[in-house]
Amino acid sequence: MSRGLGDVYKRQEGYLEEVDGLTPEALTEAYYEMLRTANIELIVLGCDEASTTAVKDALLAELSAIDRAPLPRAENIAMPRREPVRKVEHFDTTQAKLCMLFTLGRPMQPEQLAAVRLAMALYGGSVTSRLFLNVRERDHLCYYCSSSFQSFTGSMAVNSGVEHADAARAEQAILKELADLCTVPITDEEFEDCRRGLLSGMNGVEDSLGGIESWYYIEVLRAGASSAALIQSPEQARSALRAVTKDEVRDILRRLTLSVSYLLTKEDTAHAAE
Questions:
Q1: What is the pTM of this model?
Q2: 169 belongs to a structural domain
Q3: Do 119 and 14 belong to one domain?
Q4: 3-class DSSP assignment, residue 82
């Protein structure tokens, strides 16, 4: 079977032909293998200590019949720095999709997390960011344009939807905004606006049990094989964010280098800020 562009998206969930040979027995075996080898984190919310202990004991009792042998947690692995790879694929889409990947070249260090959060808010992670205000609103080069950071791999993704003919200009503008943040002074007003926006969003984490659960789930994943001492409470994260300086944010941004630029378009068009 030829696995082209359409299969890139299906691959995340497997291939259709892989389903044909599945049997109830194979699924059951896979399920019990998961229970045997998986690391299990139990998060109990809204209960007193006695109820929490009862839930834990009940879970352990259910697992006692299984010969548990949890696999060790993997260390976070950074994407290495490399010469930028540019790839164009053609597909009949209404708008082109431009995806750019940047890397620190090493895993993010726990003490960098607050600076990374503020760096993303400044660059492309909020409606007051450079990518949103300049590339989207001012230059009208993107239907959407935002950045996000993957702490497990030390990488930043910039995703945007653009007119097919504007792809190269959009890439140049995205790179320019990053360069400007690294070299041109950041005003106190812009910096503090982004900090306040992040703090406001983090203040709502503890408003629901689901929010608290999601917070600690991500914290556990981020800590990986490291010490549980690396897990931050929302208040600890807010305190760290209040202490971040412009120099710390700029240091993160300066370490990011372009690794991959991928364009999905229906046109044969130049793709690169050569």
A1: 0.80
A2: yes
A3: no
A4: coil
